[in-house]
Amino acid sequence: MISYLEFEKPVATLDAKIAELRQTAEGGEVQVSAEIRRLEQKSAELLSSTYAALTAWQKTQVARHPMRPHFVDYVALMFEDFIPLGGDRLFGEDQAIVGGPARIAGRKVMLIGHEKGNDTASRIRHNFGMGKPEGYRKAIRLMELAGRFKLPVVTLVDTSGAFPGVEAEERGQAEAIARSTEACLALPVPMVAAIVGEGGSGGAVALASAERVLMLEHAVYSVISPEAGASILWRTADKAQEMAEAMKTTAQDLLALNVIDRIVPEPVGGAHRDPAATAGALSAAIVEELDALAGKSGSELRTERARRFLQIGESS
User: What topology does CATH give the domain 59-310?
Assistant: First the structure.
């Protein structure tokens, strides 16, 4: 059952009416099939027009939707033979960042990404996708393995940011994020990063410093959350909507600024309405980018990464 966002209430009202009419039709008392078809078409048109004109704040809400597919969903829909590898060999295991070797369309890759969880228990276990230092150090370890065995690296980024707790700071959160970013930039193998939900702060950049950065149509990517940015500038989170517009967090804005390379379309109504179709489009885009990068030397890849980040924000 779909969970509707605040701005989707008109669609929710129509869908509720459709469900009510279907129950009536099942009773065999009234012929309402024509009315159901009319309302279904009206609902589809309203959903399409609504999603064609989403604001930055509304896209943020879609990116955070509790039913939006996460790392484990994409593993099931896009990848084969995934073997999760745990631990950073320094402190312990962090389940907010998951990774290991896998296959996509028959191609061997090292897959790394954030997992938020899909219910209360799993969200707590995965710390809502907020990585700790040991998670980023695990990612570094996996990237080093990928370089050693010449496996392209694919990352799926979906986090509100790295975990800001005291224990994370005590274990060197900033240093771990910086070294993970450095490991991305130094990789001797191709790397393709995809922002599939929230791309928040350094916690996202640490897994997204690739030569190809993709972004789902309704994902967001920013240096800070709109609420936190508004709290800093205006001393209130009530201006989060205004902050989201000012920060240029959407895929469309970031493509224009050369922050990302490609937008992957989502089904009408967002990825949560059809995870399989979303995964199919994302898989095809990732494979296409890996094909384009195949055969390049480590030196060429590192140069390409440096160039793309130095060019961010340039206008012709």
Answer: 2-enoyl-CoA Hydratase; Chain A, domain 1 (3.90.226)
